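Page 47, continued from p. 46.
Same chain as before, 193 aa.
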Amino acid sequence: MLRAIYTRLSLALVPRHLDRTPWLGRSIQYQAYDAAFDQGDLTEARKWHASFNEDSLPNGQTSYSRSSGPGGQHVNKTESKATTVWSVEELSRSLPKLIRSSLRSSKYYSKRNDSITIQAQTQRSRSANTEENHLKLVEELRKIYKEKVPGSTSNETVKKYEALEKSSRESRLRSKKQQGLKKAFRKGMGQDE
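Result:
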């Protein structure tokens, strides 16, 4: 009884991530980072980034409202807060596939209407706040690009990883052969006695 209680308590103290059985499959150890991506998608994303122009993005729908915070009478009388909404579908038309898939993980994503919603109220004029929204969108798209699209791998790096993979495979096969010889030697030794 005490042993069962002790076992339960010791299991309760083990963190959950250590409690699980680790994945036992072999992973690819030596491979260039961008080798796992579709090369067509990478090329498309890199071309888009090289020729990216802020004016090529859709304008979105901008609405204005009264901003909050200090500003005195001007804040109370004018609607200078700009809220710009771009639907994900509309934005996706002008973006490459690798970036398109990450739009919904953006901090500006609004699940309710499936759109990117950005607000600005730091400036006194509507046009300046609208422009700030566009700049925030451009900044967010560049951030997504930087996170999702790896830099191009040089030929030297690809050759280096191919050599590492080859040497790893050869050493693994050598150790397997040595282990097999060891087992065969043991079997032979058992029959002689």
